[in-house]
């Protein structure tokens, strides 16, 4: 349990330019694509492995306070399909939050299976890699599932590692561990991908209203200006 601050209502002043205050999350801001995703999920007779295509959109939001807590964040949506297919393979929405005062990264995660998770981890503001975790049963950083999933695909913990790569891409590896009635071992539902920038982020509303440029300086790049449409690597280079 965290110690209650004396004053839980007074809010700190936040900075209007979210992109300049995202700590390690700056590397994730923008619209991204990855074509070499790898998934391992449970099927009736064991394990299935697939490759997938992913489009990941992460846009800065205005700073958020909870009394004395101050977060800078990204609202994200990722959509995943199998190569050559239209049907959704996986979809996920949520927020990435950075709390500078405690060097904490928080991930809120919702998927259209009737399942949500809140994961967190700590790292330095200039970290190029970090990890967030969530555990079933925890009332703080936990996992909540609908009754069918909780009974049959009991998701015990979630772990995601993010790495900002020197070439400006970023990669993730995650493990959603689950217990199922048809097998004794815990199943590692794993996913990984590397995301390539296809469009820069749009500055948050407060930054736009104040006429600020997005000065957060992502990996390997100078400052972005509003409307910056820098060209990005052709698709062939992702292979
Ligand atoms: C890149 C990310 C992910 C991909 C591509 C993916 C894909 C899949 C696929 C293909 C299945 C097999 C079941 C089906 O076809 O309906 C599955 C099952 C499942 N996934 Fe994921 N998943 C991802 C991430 C996650 C995350 C983050 C969670 C939870 C935190 C999660 C929870 C589950 C659960 C509980 C099941 C078993 C439910 C069932 O089979 O009915 N998945 N996933």
> What coarse outline follows from CA principal-axis ratios?
globular
**How helix-rich are the residues, as a percent range?**
under 10%
Report how far apart the termini are: 46 Å
What is the C-alpha radius of gyration, as a whole number of Å?
19 Å
What is the topological layout?
Blueprint: E1 30-43, E2 46-66, E3 69-81, E4 88-99, E5 104-111, E6 115-122, E7 129-136, E8 142-145, H1 147-152, E9 154-164, E10 170-179, E11 187-199, H2 205-209
Parallel strand pairs: 7-8
Antiparallel strand pairs: 1-2, 1-11, 2-3, 3-4, 4-5, 5-6, 6-8, 7-9, 9-10, 10-11
Q: What does it look like?
A:
- The chain has about 240 residues and is mainly β.
- It has helices spanning about 145-150, 205-210, and strands at about 30-45, 45-65, 70-80, 90-100, 105-110, 115-120, 130-135, 140-145, 155-165, 170-180, 185-200.
- The protein has a single domain (about 20-225), classed as Calycin beta-barrel core domain (Lipocalin, Beta Barrel), CATH 2.40.128.
- It contains 2 helices and 11 strands.
- Strands 1-2-3-4-5-6-8-7-9-10-11 form an 11-stranded mixed barrel.
- The structure holds protoporphyrin IX containing FE.
Which terms summarize this structure?
239 residues, 2 helices, binds protoporphyrin IX containing FE, single chain, disordered C terminus, Lipocalin, globular, mainly beta, 11-stranded mixed β-barrel, 11 strands
């Amino acid at each position: 349990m965290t110690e209650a601050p004396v004053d839980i209502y007074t809010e700190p002043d936040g900075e209007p330019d979210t992109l300049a205050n995202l700590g390690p999350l700056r590397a994730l801001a923008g619209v991204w694509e990855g074509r070499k995703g790898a998934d391992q999920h449970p099927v009736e007779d064991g394990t299935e492995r697939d490759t997938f295509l992913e489009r990941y959109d992460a846009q800065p939001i205005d700073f958020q306070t909870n009394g004395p807590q101050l977060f800078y964040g990204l609202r994200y949506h990722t959509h995943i399909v199998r190569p050559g297919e239209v049907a959704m393979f996986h979809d996920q929405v949520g927020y990435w939050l950075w709390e500078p005062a405690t060097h904490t990264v928080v991930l809120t995660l919702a998927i259209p299976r009737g399942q949500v998770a809140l994961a967190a981890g700590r790292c330095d503001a200039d970290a190029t890699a970090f990890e967030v975790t969530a555990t079933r049963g925890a009332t703080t950083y936990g996992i909540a599932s609908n009754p069918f999933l909780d009974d049959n695909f009991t998701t015990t913990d979630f772990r995601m590692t993010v790495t900002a790569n020197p070439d400006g891409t970023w990669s993730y590896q995650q493990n959603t561990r689950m217990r199922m009635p048809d097998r004794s071992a815990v199943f590692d539902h794993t996913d990984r991908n590397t995301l390539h920038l296809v469009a820069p982020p749009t500055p948050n509303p407060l930054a736009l209203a104040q006429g600020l440029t997005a000065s957060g300086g992502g990996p390997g790049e100078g400052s972005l200006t509003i409307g910056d449409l820098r060209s990005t690597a052709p698709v062939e280079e992702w292979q």
